[in-house]
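Revision sheet: structure tokens.
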Amino acid sequence: MSTTFAALADPTRRAILARLVTGERSVTELARPFKISLPAVSKHLRVLERAGLIARGREAQWRPCRLEAGPLKEVAAWTERYRAIWEQRFDRLETYLQQLKAKEKRNGRKPRGE
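Predicted:
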């Protein structure tokens, strides 16, 4: 999973994965929106491939890339375990902010953010 997170850490690689959600694409198609060279895009693809996030095929001269969801499912399952903790923390933060606003209102001050 560390390899997956390392691959996902780069915004260009995340953008490449987002483009593959709609289906297979060639390296040229994947490179089109980026202001980087084809060799640079190929390096990003190798990182994604090593992480198991994409697979590359071969059809004559066309080398399509496709998304592989397995590692993403692992990441989703891992982060899901922490969802309850973060939701509790956000709920406590919301309660605290509401108390702060109520206190400011009682003291005759204009609540922050208004």
